[in-house]
Amino acid sequence: MCYSFSGDSEVKCIGIASAIILIYLALYSCANANGPAEMIDYARSENWASLPSVKNNSMLVPDPMLKSQQGAAEADVFYIYPTVYTSLFYNNASIDDTDYREDVSNFLLTTQASSLNNIGKIYTPYCRQASLWAYLDTEEARKKALDIAYSDVESAFHYYLEHYNQGRPLFILSHSQGSQVAVRLLREYYTRFHLGRILVAAYIIGERVGTRTFAGLKPCTAAAQTNCFVTWGTVAQGGNSEMMTGHIRGTPVCVNPLSWRMDNRVVSSSHHHGGVPDTFDKIRPHLVSAKCDRGLLNIEPAPVGFAHDGKDYHESDINLFYMDIRHNAEVRFQQYLRENAKANSTNSRNTHLVWLPAGVIPHIPPQKSESFARN
Questions:
Q1: CA dihedral 156, 162, 165, 171 (to 10 degrees)
Q2: CA–CA separation, 290 vs 249, rounded Å?
Q3: Can you name the residues that pair with 252 across neighbouring β-strands?
Q4: Where are the domains of the chain?
Q5: Cα–Cα distance measured from residue 317 to residue 82, given in angstroms and rounded to the nearest whole number
Q6: CA-CA distance, 75 to 340, in Å (whole number)?
Q7: Average pLDDT for residues 240-264, to the nearest whole number?
Q8: Cis peptide before 301 (omega within 30 of 0)
Q9: pLDDT digits (tens, 9 = 90+) for 293-302
Q10: Which helix (H) or strand (E) holds 347?
Q11: How far apart (Å, rounded) are the C-alpha atoms in residues 226 and 199?
Q12: How far apart are CA 306 and CA 234, in angstroms?
């Protein structure tokens, strides 16, 4: 289509697609001109995607042999989910958006958060996460969108520590944008609020993280290590990830979920406890071998039934290693109990977070282990 613009001596031709883009940009900038809504009240249960006191999809399991232990669990899981909001017109989700809430509840609580329902009570706050398209916006707009998302998660985490944790052992589980937020949360909270006293491990997956990202928190280099973090970004052999964000400080961290070591050795598929496909209806063990290379987790063969973009398996970072994460969390938790048993019995009055009047880390009896053998 061609249009003659006044003041121009020549006729300008604009394609239909270009015209649509121009209209979109005008509408988009107007829509995003609105400031953020009021802060979310996390005292209201409807502002949480999962609370252990309310039935939710983080309590589901993909196989009858597995059991959710949230009712009796003596540890907690704070879960921060990845990007599911894809609006073109708003940089941040509204937690009242029905489709957004359903995406979090029906897919992410199921395929990601439930991986730790054998070991902890799962707390998942709804947040005004940044839209996928915000990452393509200007640096200023992108920062604003992520700041809004972070402010919600920080507020929820603060509320969780004050009202729910009570000194209980804590796992943090996050993915993609959730891990981007989790990195900032840990950088600001780990030392300031003595999270090392309760943190079993942080699974901050699908984010570029370095060995010097945190002042006190170190990468996990062994399967039973506690008070540490793990991360990886999954690609088929020789692939690259275009979906990971983050600024690496120090050496890129990649912890292999088949060995839980930070090295570049190939670990065979015989060590793969099992992935859970997007259909969430089975456990598929021994699917892939894995090797860390230049900060990425290279797998082969490329598995079928797990979301991916070419060789980039970023979307399947967690559910491809669902059973490995589940098993490892139990190993770390039992080690945490052993490490803290003496301190709990002799120094319990001194082992609380600075703001928790009842924040004593309890002595917790070992939980019954699940059987993970699959043929």
A1: 40
A2: 24
A3: 210
A4: 32-350
A5: 11
A6: 13
A7: 90
A8: yes
A9: 989 999 999 9
A10: none
A11: 8
A12: 11
